[in-house]
């Protein structure tokens, strides 16, 4: 098996079944690799507090933490550990005026969807550099945070019923156009339940952390792999949030999808399936290779 110097991975649905699940198993699988000097990078849309209840660092020694990175908040924050403490080493945070422009744009998207298409949404404003627009305010994922196949179809049906015949592509275009009116180049993504509109995405995390690994340890994209559970195409040419880890900088790496969901994926991605347990076995196998 190929030995990787850098392993990037999504958290919810890839390393843990759900945000509320214990992180013990994931941490145990990570520990040996970190001790052996392999760089691990968690790339997730969530916050530090939502990874292992904000207590991830407690699983590891200071030395192990020196090899761990977190790219969080959909590109907003990049952490490394300094003396065992999480420290943001690069961020994409707007100033107050910039944040208000993002909020105006998010409300503008809500307003456009309601006024032109009669489509009701909820907006969640309280995020570092983006807003979440709930496209299925009445629907529930049963506490699980990963994508389920039927949700994409439900969203497409909702869009179609409201006259957005171009599906998710048209929805993302609406978001970007509203952004333009507010002077922002909106980076919009959609995981079926939420349309997220802001100024960064997982591509910023992947690039910034890989650059940092390159700068400090001369690690190259082709020495890294990238794991997630949301690569699948939501429709032709529009892929899930983990596909944003594929960038000009990272694309020489290997990309693996643990999801069982059928559908098209970016050409770089190998669908290995097997969910969280497949990813954790991979980490353990890498550790064996490492020793
Ligand atoms: Mg996920």
How are the SSEs placed, and which strands pair?
Layout: E1 6-9, H1 24-35, E2 39-43, H2 62-65, E3 68-72, E4 77-82, E5 85-91, H3 96-117, E6 122-124, E7 130-134, H4 149-161, H5 167-181, E8 187-190, E9 194-198, H6 202-217, E10 224-228, E11 233-235, E12 238-239, E13 254-257, E14 269-271, H7 275-290
Parallel strand pairs: 1-2, 1-10, 2-3, 10-13, 13-14
Antiparallel strand pairs: 3-4, 4-5, 6-7, 7-9, 8-9, 11-12
The chain binds magnesium ion.
Magnesium ion binds next to loops.
Describe the structure.
The chain is an alpha/beta fold and 291 residues long. It folds into two domains: 31-92 and 202-228 and 237-264 and 282-290, Rossmann fold (3-Layer(aba) Sandwich); 96-198. It has seven helices and 14 strands. An eight-stranded mixed β-sheet has the order 5-4-3-2-1-10-13-14, with helices on both faces. The protein has a four-stranded antiparallel β-sheet with strand order 6-7-9-8, covered by helices on one side. Strand 8 (187-190) and strand 9 form a beta hairpin. Helix 1 runs parallel beside helix 7 (275-290) and helix 3 (96-117) packs across helix 5. It is globular, with a radius of gyration of 19 Å. The mean pLDDT is 92. The structure holds magnesium ion.
């Amino acid at each position: 098996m190929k030995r990787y110097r850098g392993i990037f991975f999504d958290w919810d649905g890839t390393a843990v079944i759900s945000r509320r699940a214990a992180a013990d198993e994931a941490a145990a699988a990570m520990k040996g690799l970190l001790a052996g000097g392999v760089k691990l990078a968690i790339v997730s849309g969530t916050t530090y507090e939502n990874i292992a209840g904000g207590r991830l660092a407690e699983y590891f020694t200071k030395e192990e933490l020196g090899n761990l990175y977190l790219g969080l908040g959909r590109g907003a924050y990049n952490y490394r550990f300094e003396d065992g403490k999480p420290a943001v080493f690069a961020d994409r945070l707007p100033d107050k005026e910039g944040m208000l422009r993002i909020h105006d744009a998010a409300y503008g998207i809500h307003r456009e969807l309601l006024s032109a298409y009669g489509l009701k949404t909820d907006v969640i404003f309280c995020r570092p550099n983006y807003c979440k627009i709930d496209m299925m305010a009445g629907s529930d994922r049963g506490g699980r945070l990963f994508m389920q196949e039927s949700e994409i179809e439900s969203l497409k049906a909702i869009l179609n019923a409201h006259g957005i015949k171009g599906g998710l592509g048209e929805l993302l275009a609406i978001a970007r156009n509203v952004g333009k009116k507010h002077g922002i180049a909106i980076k919009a993504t959609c995981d079926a339940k939420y349309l997220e509109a802001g100024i960064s995405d997982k591509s910023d995390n992947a690039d910034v952390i890989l650059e940092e690994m390159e700068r400090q340890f001369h690690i190259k994209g082709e020495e890294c792999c990238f794991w997630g559970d949301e690569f699948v195409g939501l429709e032709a040419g529009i892929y899930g949030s983990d596909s944003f880890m594929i960038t000009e900088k990272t694309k020489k790496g290997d990309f693996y999808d643990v999801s069982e969901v059928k559908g098209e994926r970016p050409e770089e991605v190998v669908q290995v399936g097997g969910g969280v347990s497949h990813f954790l076995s991979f980490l353990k196998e890498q550790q064996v290779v490492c020793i």
